Amino acid sequence: MNFSTIRYTLTLMFLGIVSFFTGEIVTYAMLCFVIIILTNIHDVLKKILQKL
Questions:
Q1: pTM for this prediction
Q2: Model pLDDT, residue 49
Q3: Is 45 exposed, middle or buried (0-12, 13-18, 19+ CB in 10 A)?
Q4: Which residue intervals of 1-52 are DSSP H helices?
């Protein structure tokens, strides 16, 4: 695990706690999906940049 993965994990845990108390569980789940997808896209773009 690198620093960005730990940071994303802590951010998601914080948002999960906040969403639990505010009742926004579905919004939290959708936000997690979006963050995971964007992280994957970012990793792929980094690999493409390294090849170029």
A1: 0.64
A2: 94
A3: exposed
A4: 3-22, 25-51
Kindly give, in sequence order, each residue whose CB lies less than 8 Å from that of residue 25, ignoring residues fewer than 6 positions away: 19
CA distances from 38 to 21, 22, 35, 52 (A): 26, 25, 5, 21
How far is residue 52 from each of residues 5, 10, 32, 41, 48, measured CA to CA in Å? 25, 33, 31, 17, 6
Domain ranges of the chain: 25-52
Parts of the chain with a pLDDT under 50: none
35 token code pair: 């963050």
Q: How far apart are CA 39 and CA 2, in angstroms?
A: 13
Distance CA 38, CA 11 (A): 15
**Tokens read off for 15:** 């948002």
